[in-house]
Design a protein that fits this description.
The chain is mostly beta strands. It has one domain. It has a three-stranded antiparallel beta sheet, with no helix packed on it. Strand 2 and strand 3 form a beta hairpin. The chain starts with 10 loop residues before the first strand and ends in a 14-residue tail after the last strand.
């Protein structure tokens, strides 16, 4: 997403970040797992700098207890 193409002549910067966090959940014994994706785009538009930002958060906590992976498989 950081590469420029002829259609993106006004593109100054574009980036995407992904965060995965595990937090204690006080209502259950399992941890809460959250996935957050953020996108930032900065462009020149008619002589001005325009910034667009988007963030999306999803709860990806497993619905049941997962078994640990076996080594060597």
């Amino acid at each position: 997403m950081n590469s420029r193409t002829p259609a993106d002549t006004g593109l100054i910067h574009a980036s995407t970040q992904t965060f995965l966090s595990t937090n204690a959940d006080p209502t259950s014994a399992r941890p809460a797992v959250t996935l957050r994706i953020t996108k930032l785009e900065i462009r020149w538009v008619d002589g001005d700098v325009a910034m667009r930002f988007h963030a999306h958060t999803t709860d990806v906590t497993p619905s049941r207890r997962m078994r640990p992976a076996r080594p060597g498989r």
